[in-house]
Amino acid sequence: METVHAAAISRHPSVRTSVEHETLANTDNVYSVATMNCDWIARFYRRLEYLSFGGALQACRVMYVPEVAGCQRAIVCGDGDGRFLAELLRANRWICADFVDLSAGMATLAQRRVEAIGLEAVVRANFHVADVREFNPTDGAAYDLITAHFFLDCFDDAEATRVTRRLASFARPGATLLLSDFRIPPSGIAHYAAAAIIRGLYFAFRVATGLRVTRLPNYEDALEHAGFRKQRETLKLGGLLVASLWRRI
């Protein structure tokens, strides 16, 4: 059996933050390729991100937050240290969110970031250290907002297909998906520059986290096949980064 430690914040203000232990019964699926451990880089990740890309990645994450002001239930996939989650909770005072990340270190940072906002945010966030491919919502209800910021690039094509289908299974009809990720422009100097940067990033993450994926999956096709349709997108850094908004049909 695989034991997953879940840091969960109670929705009742009189109950202190607790750490629960979740046991996953299904061990038949082994995700040997698209698996990584970010625990030891968690404390340094924000600093490394800003040294590498300035505020561009965070700008992509929050690009479409104003567009989801009416959403009430979110699953936040692979958000790392929780900077997007914090902004979402600040911007939308009605939304409740399930944060799902493989890294206990990242989830702890995210939890502290939400606690710094205040109790009003704390009671609306639940933290789960788990693989989104195995995660099941506690009450089985569907989400009207799904977020996957710099998340799908952690999977190869086959796993990206499985993950996007899993995301689709979480979604209500008409649900919104907010996505940010890397992209290689189709031609020109930007193509070669982006390809080199992305190769370097995959090498760095292989060394630092054990990630075995070596190239970007075709996540947009996977999303289309899973039943999502892209509504808007914004490119940054010459097309190296893309923020996009999708709908579940």
Describe this entry's structure for a reader.
The protein has 249 residues and is an alpha/beta fold. The chain has one domain (2-248): Rossmann fold, CATH 3.40.50. The protein contains eight helices and nine strands. It has helices spanning 42-53, 56-62, 83-91, 104-117, 119-122, 157-170, 188-209, 219-226, and strands at residues 2-8, 18-24, 73-77, 96-101, 125-129, 143-149, 171-182, 228-236, 241-248. It has a seven-stranded mixed sheet, with helices on both faces. A two-stranded antiparallel ribbon has the order 1-2. A hairpin with a 4-residue loop joins strand 8 (228-236) and strand 9 (241-248). The longest helix has 22 residues, at 188-209. The radius of gyration is 17 Å and the shape is globular. The model is unreliable at 1-33 (pLDDT under 50).
